[in-house]
Amino acid sequence: MMSVRFPHPACQPRSASDVVQGATIRGRAHDVAPAPGLVSSLPVRRPTFSIAFGTLVTALTCLAVGCRASTAATSTAHRVKLRGISLYYETEGHGPPLLLIHGGLGNGTQFDKQRPAFAPSHQLIVPDCCAQGRTTDRPGPLTYHDMAEDMVALMDSLRLRRADIMGWSDGANIGLDMAIHHPDRVDHLVTFGANANVGGLPPADRAWNRTATAESLGVGMKAVWTSMNPDPGHYREAMNKVLEMWRTLPAFTTEELAGIRAQVMVCAGEHDLILPEHTAMIAHTIPGATMWIVPGASHGAMRERPDLVNPRVLTFLAKGPTP
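The structure assignment produced for this chain is given below.
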């Protein structure tokens, strides 16, 4: 995602319902392209320096909640208790199952630009991950592997033996973990902005992570999270768990990536937060994986260019599953 110096007045939320936890990262704050009609005059640029505490909320508040209402009419909300959490998820559509996994600090509304295009041909399962969105937390640290195991448990609860997966940012890392540890459960995997280890982030982002706390995320993030989560008093602990995870994880080895058997499409924006050589490494290490760089896009490519992303993803998912 791109970076901005300070919140633009047009990006400030009028209330918690006016923002969506959408511009997720594993480091300091970065812009995504503004929602149409919201802050279209903001320039997009890639910084070469770190930015101050609190700017993560800038990117978060630059995304409107426009499609939360549009998906509500066609989707069904569910809640299931598994592995010590109360997990919220939504379902809609018909066809082969497709699990959509959101980015860090976010929730399933991040896929509002994909769901209308995907639902006619796929059964969509759109969860909120542990300690994020409308899903509760459990004792202990937060890890990508535990969240991946939650996704497998969700599949079990739905009696789904196999599924396709599309993940953004942290959700892409969860998808990689599932493909590594549960190769018999994943047919296709589409990743946007994944990183195999913390070395995939620029040095300035790693430096921000080392000292960031829940307070670093700003009041806008707190307003959104507490308005959605069943345990609003748990905000500080939940955010600090995510930040602590980002400091050391993921830590996938080349051997683990090379053992993935699913059909994989590794995607990133042309101006992604993730270093381009790191994205290329992931794609080249996974056997048979293809790589697609979304032209002109940042870490938020799937929200910025759904006109390119949606047909490309659907074409990839239409390929026959791995034998």
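Interim note for the steering committee: The first strand starts at residue 76 and ends at 82. Strands lie at 76-82, 85-92, 97-101, 123-127, 163-168, 186-192, 263-269, 290-294.
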